[in-house]
Amino acid sequence: MATNVLALPRAAEPTGIMSWITTVDHKRIGILYLVTAVIFFIIGGIEALIIRTQLATPSSTLVDPATYNQVFTMHGTTMVFLALMPLNSGFGNYFVPLMIGARDMAFPRLNSLGYWLFLFGGLLLYSSFLIGGGAPDAGWFGYAPLSERAYSPTHGIDFWILSLQLLGISSIIGGLNFIVTILNMRAPGMTLNRLPLFVWGTLVTSLLAIFAIPSISVALFLLLFDRTFATSFYLPGGSGDPLLWQHLFWFFGHPEVYIMIMPSFGIISEVLATNSRKPIFGYAAMAFAFAGISFVSFTVWAHHMFAVGMSPLADAIFAGMSFVVGVPTGIKIFNWLGTIWRGSLRVNTAFLFAAGFIGQFTIGGLGGIMLAVVPVDWQITDTYFVVGHFHYTLFAGTVLALFAGTYYWFPKMTGRFLNEKLGQIHFWLTMVGMTMLFLTMHYVGVLGMPRRIYTYGPNMGWDLWNLIETIGAFIVALGVLFFIVNLFKSMRQKATATNDPWDGQTLEWATSSPPPAYNFASMIPVNSPRPLWDAKYGPHSEFASNPKKIDLSGGGNANVHLPNPSIWPLVLTIGLVIIAIGIIFGFNGGALALDISSMGMAVQSLPIAFAGGIVVFFIGLVGWIAQPAG
513: helix, coil or strand? Predict the structure, then answer.
């Protein structure tokens, strides 16, 4: 039986640009994440097309080597840090509170700060094109000593370092916010073993982030010291060790793969269960698999380093652990298939992307098992086989799941459906193009084509395969174009989506489409991972014979107090960005400096930008503390 625990009036939604700049509403912040990340995804995709066009034919001169290295670096950095991670954060911000029956995130202003750090971190990175003397050019992995000043003398790497630090802060505070929200703000009755699997994925991702990101933060600080203060943490000539960078980077880099894909596992679970019209198969095993993958992911980082000369014992240990990570992943794949098996399938676009994800991600996973075999890895490491493998895990994994989530949740977010015809064209173009692009990379890698090259000579046997890959890349881009057209076309249509258009199982479908500012006017009992289905079809539900009677969209007369909007997260972010610019140009020989020796301070000079950034930061901090939270 549905039980009203709180009844609220529909609050008037704020309007105008300032309402978006100062918002602390988790739904609006989720939309900001999603829109910004889609823009960066398009930019990263354009960079990918430049790379593929350059490699389409032998001896191409579309771009020179220096430009290619910059575009190559920006593509990888953009897709990992500015597109896929924030897209997951966008869905998490919007739907985690709704799925656990909360009114907002635990720390709304901190949530806003995370978005602004993400946005300005991305803008800082791309400003290197304009004021950095060139973009970073050492690859998204930034291997030392190639990222040292002797080999990359422009400020591009400095912008890369400080941008990733801002993005890392954003991810850590976002992760902490998710953890506190999920653990402390669940609806009555929603125990951990009743969490929706998307929430499980977000929780595990958040734990991964707060333990993995400090490793790359330390690596970046040491690199910044090398470039700025002439230390030699990664320089062999100064008793440094380039492998230190690889260990620190990959201790973050491998869990990072799961940071990107864990929420996607959750999305796939929700989409398949709803569109199969049955509960997820093996819920407990799926939840434990999330935890298992997260633990094992911290024990396999050095399988990226089999070719650097580690001991045979170390190679064997990391190879063995790399095989182990396939066990919880295999549990998920078989449970997804068990969910589909004998289900009453609704074959819409969201389901197609989710089903396509299973097959394509399995190919990527099998490639990972091959690379875990040390002798095989020695033969194909640093070839295009590896490029094909990680694109199968990230694009065929994360991106397909994000498309599935978009088609699934778009009616809830906007009150409108995405066009199914355009959506299915998008799906088939993506699948065909992706297979031509990434599966072919495996073959050309076995033929010996190295990764990270900007051109190649004729008669190498790679010409046809690279042309096929480039055609596939443009087919994928055409599919994305259909997706963008679909978004704009659908937003111009009249809102027709009901509160529960897919006959959903979880709580986000128990409120209006789109939800009101306060999310829920009343709450239903939570007795399982699918509380809405229990309310509609459970044996004790008074609505079992007529589920249309359920209405939690917002009637009633009581009032609710929501968190106050705040400008201070933006001010804090601007202060940090100015400090970063001051570090880049002030401590690296910049001309603008402020003499503060008359103040009796030990430091004789301080860059003006750095000092100004500190002032702005403390103004934002004081404003934050002084403003009432709610």
Answer: coil
pLDDT score of 425 more than 80: yes
Check if 126 is active-site. Answer: no
Catalytic annotation, pick one of 22, 143, 451, 503: 451
Predicted local confidence at residue 224, as pLDDT: 95
What are the structure tokens assigned to 139, written together?
């690859």
CA proximity to 290, closest of 262, 322, 260, 324? 262
pLDDT of residue 599: 41
Longest dimension (CA), the chain: 82
Q: For the whole model, what pTM was predicted?
A: 0.92
Residue 620 near residue 571 (C-beta atoms within 8 A): yes
**Angstrom distance (rounded) from CA 107 to CA 508:** 20
Query: Of the listed 170, 322, 393, 430, which one is catalytic?
Result: 170
Rounded to whole angstroms, how far apart are CA atoms 392 and 526? Answer: 38
What are the chain's domains?
25-563 (1.20.210.10), 567-630 (no CATH)
Is residue 372 over pLDDT 70?
yes
Residue reference for tokens 């940090």? 576
- From the list 155, 254, 389, 426, the catalytic residue is 254
Q: Verify whether residue 171 is a known catalytic residue.
A: yes
451 assigned to active site:
yes
Task: State yes or no: is 20 an active-site residue.
Answer: no
Enclosing H/E stretch for 368: helix 349-371
Active site residue 391: no
- Distance from C-alpha of 216 to C-alpha of 344, rounded to nearest angstrom: 46
End-to-end CA distance of the chain: give it in Å, rounded: 33
User: Hey, how many other C-beta atoms are within 10 angstroms of the C-beta on 486?
Assistant: 22
Q: What is the pLDDT of residue 51?
A: 97
- In order of 72, 439, 444, 471, 625, the CA distances from 468 in angstroms are 20, 10, 11, 5, 57
Catalytic residue among 332, 389, 412, 536: 332
- 75, 155, 412, 530: the catalytic one is 75
How buried is 352 (Cβ within 10 angstroms: 0-12 exposed, 13-18 middle, 19+ buried)? buried
- Please say if 540 is a catalytic residue: no
Q: Known catalytic residue: 75?
A: yes
| 3-class SS of residue 605 | strand
Catalytic residue among 152, 202, 329, 522: 329
User: What's the rounded Cα separation, in Å, for the pair 303 and 592?
Assistant: 45
The question of whether 303 is a catalytic residue gets the answer yes
What would the pLDDT profile of 24-55 be if each residue is shown by its tens digit? 999 999 999 999 999 999 999 999 999 999 99
Catalytic position from the list 109, 186, 194, 303: 303
Say how far apart CA 22 and CA 20 lie, in whole Å.
6
